[in-house]
Amino acid sequence: MAIKGQVRADGVRPRGAAGPAVKRSLATRILRKVRRDLRYYGLRAHTVWFAATRGVKVGKGTLIFPGARMSKIGGGTIRIGSYCVFHHGSLLATYGGDIHISDRVSLNDYSILYGHGGLEVGEGARIAAHTVVIPSNHGIDADEPIWMQPMALRGIVIGKDVWMGTGVRVLDGSVIADGCVIAAGAVVLPTLQTEPMGIYGGVPARKISSRIRSQDPS
Ligand SMILES: CC(C)(COP(=O)(O)OP(=O)(O)OC[C@H]1O[C@@H](n2cnc3c(N)ncnc32)[C@H](O)[C@@H]1OP(=O)(O)O)[C@@H](O)C(=O)NCCC(=O)NCCS
Fold first, then answer.
1. Residue having the nearest C-alpha atom to atom 3 of ligand 1
2. Protein residue closest via CA to atom 7 of ligand 1
3. Atom 12 of ligand 1: nearest residue by CA position
4. Structural Rg of the chain based on CA atoms
5. Can you give the pLDDT at residue 213?
6. Cα 183 to middle of ligand 1, angstroms
């Protein structure tokens, strides 16, 4: 005989035996969903307010967490696609350049994307915590103080479906091809020739592997 709430030794609940355990788990699921929805719509409200007060274009479904910062210092623009996530402590700062973030990009805690010479981030890019992308260089001729020399501004392009591990540095003039993985702690120089789906790591970054597993590192 099926007793309410009883589960057989094989883990199957007999038909019609919807006991208190099931009701509790349904209530828990509903509560969790309500909590998730409240958090989502709270964050959306914060995002819309945040973007409106800073003149930043933001697509639908994007979430900017409290504690993320965006600054159009010295001019430039910030455009952000849909369904992106900007975590606490992350920073976008134009310094006169244009920053364009495509759809479904995530920027984790305390990562910094500067604009200077222009920055493009492709769809779906994942940028882990404490990464810095900086599209500018000071002039370093010996006959003039550094602060008096013009900055070099070449710009940086990060392809779509790129994953940058924690603590990566990307320097001015770099182009990271679609699908690349940049290993934690790597420094990407503009001289690095990246191929789609390559895995690059080290200081300076070199090819260490490939997402296409049959390819040897070269
Ligand atoms: C790059 C990564 C994904 C591993 O890629 P992989 O292709 O599986 O690499 P493997 O572990 O097989 O290592 C391949 C080679 O790369 C080297 N390598 C791996 N990670 C490295 C790193 N961060 N820096 C330098 N070299 C690295 C390995 O030592 C190995 O070298 P070897 O062939 O001389 O022994 C991983 O090491 C990494 O850096 N992950 C980032 C983690 C992170 O930041 N997470 C944040 C979550 S958002």
1. 183
2. 209
3. 209
4. 24
5. 82
6. 5
Q: Which DSSP string corresponds to 158-216?
A: E-TT-EE-TT-EEETT-EE-TT-EE-TT-EE-TT----TTEEEETTTTEEEEESSTTSP
Q: Which residues contact 217 (CB under 8 A, 6 or more apart)?
A: 199, 207, 208, 209, 210
Q: How confident is the model at residue 214 (pLDDT cuts 50, 70, 90)?
A: confident
Q: Return the best residue to mutate from 168, 197, 209, 216 for the ligand 1 pocket (most ligand atoms within 8 A of CB).
A: 209
Cα 203 to ligand 1 centre (Å):
13
> 110-139, pLDDT tens digit by residue?
999 999 999 999 999 999 999 999 999 999
Expressed in angstroms, the distance from the first to the final Cα of the chain is 68
Judge if the upstream peptide bond of residue 190 is cis by omega within 30 degrees of 0: no
- The CA 206 to ligand 1 mean position distance, Å, reads 12
Structural domains for the chain: 20-215 (2.160.10.10)
Predicted confidence at residue 22, as pLDDT, reads 62
| Strands ordered across the beta sheet of 187-188 | 69-71, 91-93, 112-114, 132-134, 169-171, 187-188
pLDDT, tens digit, 9 for 90 and up, residues 73-110 = 999 999 999 999 999 999 999 999 999 999 999 999 99
